[in-house]
């Protein structure tokens, strides 16, 4: 049976950031696992015919020197570019946000298609089980999934968690988000930078044209619905019709080639935790991190790319052995 010093569950940006920190510290005996077929989590990009669309995070902002230092390197590598905005410029990945996640995870030992379904603590070691029946041992475990998924996993596990920590985790709720992805035959009327987040109808959060954003050969648009709207209409089968009705005046629907709907069950935390990670045992062996864990100094107060990046990094520094 494999035995790692650390298992990181979740290969979104938090998990990747933790892994990058460990590699910098010279750590090798760890594994980053994800239930998906690719790393990145909510840094998600979809191919649509000849084109491409980001349908999770569209961009990120930078408020800390730590992320700024990293971003300098990513700009030099040609992985990201400045997209728009002055006070907090929006950066985006030149080839789609998921590609950036892959570039960041390049040197990391990763196991995909690995959904951790149970963790059992026995004699100071954690036994992890995935839903395909695989089992491995780990001295420490870092959980970086959206908080409700962490709570769910803990519920199905046999580990000692401090009751106060569990209570705090149970208090974190995530809003869902619906994203309509539309492929048009010809260019859209959206502004030159391809981004609209003002003057939109109630319920609509953002429109992005990926051809104008510069990541797609053809005009593919993502329409983001607000969290409240998405929660109200969650699971309804006419969501796509409503999205199109809501954004009627922005697009020429006769020019539509194809449409797809993406539903994020956990998109953004409606309440965050004011610490950048949480030690669940008090011994640093089982730790929770992720975008809902914000440094107390965080002024933006939102789950986002930067909070995920910092949370993973801080948790890895704390768990270093
Ligand atoms: C629609 C949308 C739009 C957004 N827009 C922006 C934006 O414009 N700017 C911005 O800064 N942020 C934005 N965000 C937020 C940003 O994407 C997230 O804050 C960040 O990517 C979260 O990273 P994470 O690693 O914490 O979580 P995730 O990316 O969710 O990663 C968690 C990973 O855990 C995996 N996982 C879950 N359960 C298990 C399990 N049991 N076993 C194994 N693996 C598991 C998942 O597959 C996933 O890959 C947006 C998010 C969404 C959904």
Automatic annotation (TrEMBL):
Under the heading Pfam families, the entry gives: Amino_oxidase (PF01593), NAD_binding_8 (PF13450)
Any one GO molecular-function label of the UniProt entry: oxidoreductase activity
Classification via SUPFAM superfamilies: FAD/NAD(P)-binding domain (SSF51905)
* Record domain Amine oxidase: where: 90-319
Native source organism of the sequence? Halobacillus yeomjeoni
By what name is this protein known? Answer: FAD-dependent oxidoreductase
